[in-house]
């Protein structure tokens, strides 16, 4: 039986992961803003076999609330075997270009709040000297594309932070996993014109995440073909890349 902390637990990918972990009879501490959705998620996990589910309402951008959340989690779980950070938004790039406040708010949601949570969690995992700390970043962080460079910047910051954190915690037996999904069919992407061949279901993405955590993966592209796609995009020369509308 594993003790699982999920922040952003009501997101489609997080819920799909939680269902797979629930089928193993694990215990959960779920964190999200919307308590009603949390209760629905908890009922779903209990129906899928979760041993116990505790709920905690929190806005991840309220950085001052992070220590109390972690304290509550530890009072229930005692130790965290798996932590998954899965909250975030997909900002309107044009709005971010026109309004500094919008840009900074979106960066706080997708970047600053994640780094703050990782800082608190990393100290706990260092004390434990065991466990897996998984973070949903994005393929968008691999290169700054004009269509979503504010979002990409936040995710690049998270991915780079995780790279350094991984090297730090590896030495005490803790694995840090950077998860980089491509296009996923979730409420966050509804209404976007995305190529159907590249659009993955949350359940498929979740299976790869759960399996990746189990085998102590480090950087996890999902679906796997995104590793090749982003390799090609990263190697496009800047003289060509700046002319593209990606």
- How large is the share of residues in beta strands? 15-25%
| Helical amount | 40-55%
Topology-level CATH name = Rossmann fold
CATH top level class name: Alpha Beta
- What's the architecture, going by CATH? 3-Layer(aba) Sandwich
Gross geometry: globular
Rg calculated over all Cα atoms: 18 Å
Distance between the termini: 44 Å
Number of domains: 1
**Helical stretch count?**
9
Question: H/E order of the elements?
Answer: EHEHEHEHHEHEHEHH
Structural class: alpha/beta
| Main sheet: strands, sense, barrel | 7 strands, parallel
| Physical arrangement of strands within the biggest beta sheet | 3-2-1-4-5-6-7
* Mean pLDDT figure: 96
Strand tally: 7
The low-confidence parts are none
CATH superfamily membership: NAD(P)-binding Rossmann-like Domain
Oligomer kind:
single chain
What features would you describe in this structure?
The protein is an alpha/beta fold. It has a single domain (3-241), classed as NAD(P)-binding Rossmann-like Domain (Rossmann fold), CATH 3.40.50.720. The chain has 9 helices and 7 strands; from the N terminus they run E-H-E-H-E-H-E-H-H-E-H-E-H-E-H-H. The protein has a 7-stranded parallel beta sheet, sandwiched between helices. Helix 1 (12-22) runs parallel beside helix 2, helix 1 packs across helix 7 and helix 5 (100-128) runs parallel beside helix 6. The protein is globular, with a radius of gyration of 18 Å. The chain starts with a strand and ends in a 5-residue tail after the last helix. The model has no long low-confidence stretch (mean pLDDT 96).
